[in-house]
Amino acid sequence: MTKIAISRFRVFLILLCLFLPTLAIAASEDPSCDIENPTIPRPVNAISAQEPTAISLYEAASKYLLDAPYRQDPKEAFRLYSQSAQMGYAPAQLALGTLYFRGITGRPDYAKALENYLAAANQGNPVACYNVALMYEGGLLGQKDLEKAAKWYIRGAELKDAACQYKAGEMYRFGRGVSQQDETAARYYKEATAQGYYPAQSRLAYLYLKGQGVPQNVSESLTLLQSAANQNDADAQYTLGWLYETGYGVAKNMANALNWYKKAAQLSHQRAALAVKRITTGTTRLSF
Asked: Do 136 and 7 share a domain, yes or no?
C-alpha cells in the first residue's frame, strides 16, 4: 500500500489499531454468527427491550470494541454492526467495512470492505469516500484505478472533508486520474488549509513559492511553511532548510538551515538527511 494508505485509514481503523492488535481471532464458517465469550459478560442493557434500531445496534456494537469490559468480543461487534449496516446506517457500514479490512473474521476481505465503504460513501459519508478512494488508489483489489480514486476524493472534498480536499489537490497537482491543473490543486489545498490540515499547508506553500496555480507570494509561502513545520511536517521543514541555506526569500542562515534539515531528517526525510550530511561534511551539491 502507498505511504498515504498506511497513514490514513482513519476513525475506526485508528481505534481498531489501538484496541485489537493483540487479539487472535479464529475464522468462522459464518462470520455474522453470535459467538459468546464466557469470560466476558454480555452488556444486557446495551440494546433496549424495544425493537432495536440501526442506531441502537450501532451503539451496542461499539461497546464491544470501546467500552470495557466488552472490547474483547469483536465478533459480537461484527454481528451487531452487520445488522445495523443491513438497515442502511452509514456509520455502521463504515465500521463494518473497516472490520472486513482488518480481517476481524480471520483474514482481510477487501472486496467486502469496499462494498460496505461504497454503501456508506453513496450516502454521503466523507470518511467512507476517503477509504474507497484509498483502496482504488492502492490497488487493493488488483489493478490501481486512479480515475475512480480521484472521483471519490473529489466527492469527499465536496463534503468538506479536509483529508479528501488535500488528496483531491494531490490528484490535480500531479495529474493522477484527472488532468494536471495547478489552479484546481491550489483551490483544494486552500480548502484543506482553511481547516488546519497541515500537509495541505506544505503543498500550498510550495505553489506560492513557485507561483504555480497562484500568484507568487514568498511571504505567504513562509507563513504556511512555518505553520506546517511546527506541526512536524517533514516536507515543510526540509523546504525551510533549503530557503535558509540558499537565502531564497529569507536572510541566508546556515545554522537555521541545518536546524530544519535535522528536524526533517529525524522524521525520516531522505533528502533532509542527505542535506545534513552534505553540510556537515563540507560537500556543496545542492538540490530542491
From this structure: yes
